[in-house]
From TrEMBL:
<protein>
    <recommendedName>
        <fullName>Kinesin motor domain-containing protein</fullName>
    </recommendedName>
</protein>
<feature type="region of interest" description="Disordered">
    <location>
        <begin position="276"/>
        <end position="310"/>
    </location>
</feature>
<dbReference type="InterPro" id="IPR027417">
    <property type="entry name" value="P-loop_NTPase"/>
</dbReference>
<dbReference type="InterPro" id="IPR036961">
    <property type="entry name" value="Kinesin_motor_dom_sf"/>
</dbReference>
């Protein structure tokens, strides 16, 4: 048994994580190699299981590790099936035939984007919504390790468990289709009257309608999201412009206040100088009046002296 955690394009050996001890050295790098049994990881820890008890115990231990991780996990079980048949040539003897079987259980939690796109296109192709869609093959860690998934085809019910037993299911489906064709050739019954077939067609139409509705809703959501983004950008531009105008208005108000204060200072200074000049002018006028009075008095005295002499 092997347990591998696929995270993006890297592989993590879950069994090696459980058995790693301090000082054990660097972990072995896991590489995909092609062998006779298909693609396998070189360096991955392989545990031999001797019975169901060992399998249950190992799965219980793995659950503790898986719960703490959020990636795509794969559990690979390789076992040998042995069949015994009676030998028709030798009575009483048996013939033993064996074959190797590999079963892959996949827990799809966090798929890579490329693999998720492959699933979407494959579902569209199988559901008849887009029958001409070509399923892309993106090379990811998952597709490198399990390349046979895309060669076998895709079945939606096998997304959680992918194994070679899909071949048996395909054989059963082919047998069922062949029996329907034979039945049609025998009696040519009107399949439209078959209640189960009508119900299946109705359910298929409903599923197709739901997928179309989901796609339209997704497109509408994208359109609304684009409109919201455009409006948000417009609001951000308006807010930036408003902030710029508000800043300019604040600067202008500050400059006006400074100019008003400066003008008031100049007016006070002018009034003070004007008052000083008025005082000086009054003092000068008084001095000139005194001088004028003295001169008048002196002239009058001189005139009276001259008249007395005469």
């Amino acid at each position: 048994m092997e347990a591998v955690d696929i995270s993006g394009d890297s592989y993590v050996d879950l069994l090696a994580i459980r058995r790693t001890r301090p000082g054990a050295g660097d972990p072995v790098e896991l590489k995909v190699q092609m062998g006779p049994d298909g693609a396998r990881l070189h360096g991955v820890t392989t545990t031999e299981i001797r019975g169901s008890h060992d399998l249950r115990a190992l799965l219980k231990q793995l659950i503790k590790v898986v719960k703490k991780r959020n990636s795509t996990h794969t559990v690979t079980i390789r076992f040998t099936e042995t069949f015994e048949f009676d030998d028709p040539e030798n009575v009483g003897q048996s013939v033993t035939k064996s074959r190797r079987v590999q079963v892959v259980f996949v827990i799809l939690r966090n798929l890579p984007a490329g693999f998720q796109r492959v699933v979407d296109v494959a579902v569209e192709h199988d559901s008849g919504e887009n029958p001409l869609a070509k399923v892309p093959t993106r090379e990811t860690a998952f597709t490198r390790l399990h390349p046979g998934i895309f060669t076998q085809g895709y079945n939606i019910t096998f997304v959680d468990c992918l194994s070679p037993y899909y071949e048996h299911v395909r054989e059963n489906v082919n047998t069922l289709i062949f029996s329907l064709k034979v039945q049609k050739l025998k009696g040519k019954p009107r399949q439209s009257n078959d209640e189960s077939l009508v119900e299946m067609r109705r359910l298929a139409d409903e599923v197709k309608g739901l997928k179309v509705t989901v796609r339209r809703q997704s497109e509408a959501m994208q359109t609304v999201q684009k409109e919201l983004n455009a409006r948000e950008v417009e609001l951000m531009k308006r807010e930036a412009k408003y902030n710029e105008v508000n800043t300019n208005l604040t600067d202008t108000r500050q400059r006006v206040q400074l100019m008003t204060v400066s003008r008031n200072i100049e007016v006070d200074k002018t009034n003070r100088v004007k008052g000083e000049m008025s005082k000086e002018l009054s003092a000068k006028k008084k001095e000139m009046q005194v001088v004028e009075d003295n001169k008048t008095a002196k002239d009058k005295a001189t005139k009276e002296g001259c008249e007395g002499r005469e």
